[in-house]
Amino acid sequence: MITTILIASSNAGKLRDFSIAADEAGRSGSIALEFLPGLSDIPAAPENEDTFEGNAQSKAVYYSKFVPGKLVLADDSGLEVDALNGAPGVRSARYADDAGIEPTAGESVDQANNGLLLANLVGVPEDRRQARYRCVLALARDGECLLTAEGHVDGRILMQPVGSGGFGYDPLFLLPELRLTMAQIDLGTKHRLSHRGRAFRALLDSLRNEISV
Question: How many domains does the chain have?
Answer without folding.
Answer: 1
